[in-house]
């Protein structure tokens, strides 16, 4: 029985924590557990570079939960660590940002306490999320263990009144506005929805000693924002969306959009930031 399994989790001695990313799955998990595990704590590791929609979504979640969301990294956001790393932008290969801004603050926050860390990976996903190397932090996967899929997550968000994060129509991964895991179409979405943040992201890109430091390996943001390049990206995006529609005529647009964005870049997102 589902309720027995959850009661079993709630009875475990130690701290119970949902690590929020500002994305739909961790938000749905917070909502799903809030009346089942009353002692649960909610934590958000703030890079100070999230989208405004994410901060707004977290505020609305906090109001719904009637409980505080503990914000970590109050003093040291992305720019502090970028400075410490000599201006080297993080990338999928050298991902210092996740360690410094997500993992270490969380591990410092829990210390040596016994922790049940609830992770919003769904039953219809193949990933495992962030598994701490600390022996006192134990991962729990409620959606996976209870067989809950995307339809359940959408229902939880709908019923709560929160719905999907507002950025969802153009971007499907939570996290920093300049995240290098963004797909091509999501960068175009950033330029269109937040031109100021696109400009800010552009300012981080440099060239030194013949080497370039770009968010995207293949091209700089200055190249990507050229009108002909944007027109090409949009053409390809529309074509893929049309193909997806024909392949799966009964699926909601949001799902088709996810498949189209995945097809643009095959890099998997971050298992910590994008939940
Ligand atoms: S969202 Fe992207 S850039 Fe930000 S901390 Fe996570 S992996 Fe790094």
How would you summarize the topology of this molecule?
Layout: H1 2-10, E1 15-20, H2 24-33, E2 41-45, H3 52-65, E3 69-72, H4 78-84, H5 96-110, E4 115-118, E5 137-140, H6 142-145, H7 150-160, H8 184-193, H9 195-203, E6 206-208, E7 211-213, H10 221-224, H11 227-247, H12 253-264
Parallel strand pairs: 1-2, 1-4, 2-3, 4-5
Antiparallel strand pairs: 6-7
The structure holds iron/sulfur cluster.
Domain Phosphoadenosine phosphosulphate reductase: 17-127
InterPro entries: PAPS_reduct_dom, Rossmann-like_a/b/a_fold, Sulfate_adenylyltrnsfr_sub2
GO molecular function: catalytic activity
Task: Explain how this protein is built.
The protein has 275 residues and is an alpha/beta fold. The chain has 2 domains: 2-169, HUPs (Rossmann fold, 3-Layer(aba) Sandwich), CATH 3.40.50; 184-264, no CATH class. The protein is 46% helix and 11% strand. The chain contains 12 helices and 7 strands. The strands form 2 sheets. The protein has a 5-stranded parallel sheet, sandwiched between helices. Strands 6-7 form a two-stranded antiparallel ribbon. Strand 1 (15-20), helix 2 and strand 2 (41-45) form a beta-alpha-beta unit. Bound molecules: iron/sulfur cluster.
Brief digest:
This protein has 275 residues and is α/β, with parallel strands linked by helices. It has twelve helices and seven strands.
């Amino acid at each position: 029985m589902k309720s027995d399994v959850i009661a079993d989790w709630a009875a475990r001695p130690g701290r119970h924590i949902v690590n929020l990313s500002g994305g739909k799955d961790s938000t749905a998990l917070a909502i799903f557990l809030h009346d089942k595990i009353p002692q649960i704590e909610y934590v958000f590791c703030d890079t100070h570079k999230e989208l405004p929609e994410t901060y707004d979504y977290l505020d609305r979640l906090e109001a719904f939960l009637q409980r505080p969301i503990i914000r970590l990294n109050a003093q040291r956001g992305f720019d502090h660590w970028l400075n410490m790393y000599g201006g080297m932008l993080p990338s999928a290969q050298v991902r210092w940002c996740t360690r410094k801004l997500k993992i270490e603050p969380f591990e410092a926050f829990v210390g040596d306490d016994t922790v049940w860390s609830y992770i919003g990976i769904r039953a219809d996903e193949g990933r495992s999320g962030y598994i701490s190397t600390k022996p006192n932090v134990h991962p729990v996967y409620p959606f996976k263990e209870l067989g809950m899929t995307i339809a359940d997550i959408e229902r939880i968000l709908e019923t709560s009144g929160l719905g999907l994060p507002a950025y969802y129509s153009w971007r499907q991964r939570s996290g920093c506005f300049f995240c290098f895991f963004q797909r091509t179409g999501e960068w175009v979405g950033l330029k269109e929805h937040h031109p100021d943040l696109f400009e800010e992201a552009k300012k981080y890109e440099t060239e030194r000693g013949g080497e370039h430091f770009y968010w995207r390996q293949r091209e700089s943001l200055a190249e990507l924002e050229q009108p002909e390049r944007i027109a090409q990206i949009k053409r390809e995006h529309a074509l893929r969306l049309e193909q997806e529609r024909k392949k799966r005529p009964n699926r909601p647009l949001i799902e088709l959009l996810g498949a189209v964005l995945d097809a643009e870049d095959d890099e998997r997102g971050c298992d910590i930031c994008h939940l």
